[in-house]
Design a protein that fits this description.
Elements lengths: L2 H8 L7 E2 L2 E2 L30
Antiparallel strand pairs: 1-2
Length: 53
């Protein structure tokens, strides 16, 4: 499946609030990685933090 189709269906970024060092997820919320190829390779994660300094 082409990358642009996957990105439009699943999204390419995620914003998660964090309070007191913990993820602020609802009771039924979770974070999942969906792999759409036969052989996974290495991943790079970019984290951008914004907050009240």
């Amino acid at each position: 499946m082409p990358a642009h189709v996957k990105a439009s269906m699943l999204g390419a970024s995620l914003t998660i609030p964090i309070a007191q060092g913990r993820l602020c997820l609802g009771t039924w919320q979770g974070i999942y990685l969906c792999e759409h190829r036969n052989h996974a390779s290495g991943r790079k994660l970019v984290v951008t933090l914004q907050g009240n300094g």
